[in-house]
Amino acid sequence: ADVTQTVHALIWSLGFRPYFEHLSVLALVLSAIVHDVGHDGRNNTFHMNLQDDLALTYNDRSVLENYHASVALKLVAVEPEANILDCLQRDQFVQVRREII
């Protein structure tokens, strides 16, 4: 919640909103909301040193960040009631997804 609150404050309270397109604001807020979804309490270095499934899946590159984005986007893809992006046109969805990743 702290990341989401910080993003909200930066965009609306501190005046950063004019610097972002509407879809970028959506991607930024969604990224903040899901930034730690499924977090296991460990850090990237732990996973990379262990060479566990996450580290291997994401090739030691922003392991947890890629994992969080993947979990959130898979949820949107398989759970219709969670798909808050279904109202977007295909090109808009691609843009938001790319920015989340």
Oligomeric assembly: single chain
Largest sheet: none
| Helical content band | 55-70%
Total strand segments: 0
Summarize model confidence as the mean pLDDT.
Answer: 96
Radius of gyration: 15 Å
Low-confidence stretches: none
Q: Name the helix and strand elements from N-terminus to C-terminus, one letter apiece.
A: HHHHHH
**What is the percentage of strand-forming residues?**
under 5%
Number of DSSP helical runs: 6
What global shape is seen?
A: globular
* Structural category: mainly alpha
Span between N and C termini?
20 Å
Describe this structure in words.
This protein is mostly helical. 63% of the residues lie in helices and 0% in strands. The protein has 6 helices and no strands. The radius of gyration is 15 Å and the shape is globular.
Topology:
Layout: H1 2-13, H2 22-34, H3 44-50, H4 53-57, H5 63-78, H6 90-100
Helix pairs in contact: 1-2, 2-6
Summarize the structure.
This protein has 101 residues and is mainly alpha-helical. The protein is built from 6 helices and no strands.
Which keywords apply here?
6 helices; about 100 residues; mainly alpha
